[in-house]
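Sample pair:
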Amino acid sequence: MVGRSAPIHGRVAPGFEEVRVEFERNFARRGEVGAACAAYHQGRPVVDLWGGYRDARHRAPWEEDTLVLVFSATKGLAAMTLAVAHAHGWLDYDAPVAAYWPEFAQAGKERVTVRQLLAHQAGLCAVDRPLDVDLLGDLDALAGVLAAQRPAWEPGTCQGYHALSIGWYEGELLRRVDPRQRSLGQFFQDEIARPLGIEFYIGLPAEVPNSRLAALKVLSLADLRLRAHATTGTAAGRRFFRAVCNPTSLSFRAFTNPGPTRKNLAALRDRRFLALEIPSATGIGQVRGMARAYSALATGGAELGVGPETLSALAAPPEPPSADRRDQVLKLDIHFALGFLRPSDAYRFGSSDRAFGAPGAGGSLAFADPDAQIGYAYAPNRMGMALLGDAREQALQDALYRCLGR
């Protein structure tokens, strides 16, 4: 724990002071090491806070331009690229994936729609072939592996979190529909990051120095096993942690290819790994940039060329699978739609069910709330244990909405 001496920086608009109070309490009472939080309301920045240490071991402070790995919160930024493609008329969410990617039709996937794939209903949550850095860096070879994968269930009947694989499928789909055949990371830079003036990468460029990166404080696999029962708090959370520690389970397979978990944790400091475009996991950037991107969608989408038809699709109610609604990987009753997590009884965020976003391992969260016209993001470098709803983030989000209510 860093404690009360942690340096806190940034600004809040008048009326949003309570968010800063809770941000400071995260360091004083909730074990925060380093973090940032940002929010836009009606297109205007109202919260931009950062503090603590990007590297606690060396007492290196979290700076205004510190970049942090946000794990699965990357999924929301990746889904934005497909929303832009949809707005351009390149992609129909209800078309078969194979209409754009003919090789995808192998192994019983010929009728899988884009909507089903992005809702984690395609049964492609685990990849059977072992993956490594070399294969993941060769998008053509990776596409062949993905196309050959057989679904774990009849697509559309169940849902199972495609923890890593969803990003690779999204990336190849985008390459197929983009007239310039750009990778998803490059498309994100060209069509979202540069127009909005934000710094966020899906695949870390070599020229970004290590001195700008937040050093993650992670738990070992042994710690996860020991603390799972005590810290998850719910039967569903305990089911998930038991499953993800079982090498024969679908949950384990969904999260641990490439490599076993202990190697994944070491890879978080490996520039070769961080340079890969894994649109479900390797997003690194400034937290305010995530909030700014979601703000563009929460306030009409014009800055990104996203019109009412696409925005209505993003905020529409999710279409559940036809049979089992419990997520086969996460063991929760949660909902996904068009690449985004949506609010549910198991996990609430935003002001209404029309919100859409993505949380990340360890506590990060970013989302758009079109009803309140909010773009919001938070990310720490000390990874928490909650499956969903980290107490540090929840305190900030609750304070933000209390301020809005006043």
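The first strand starts at residue 8 and ends at 12.
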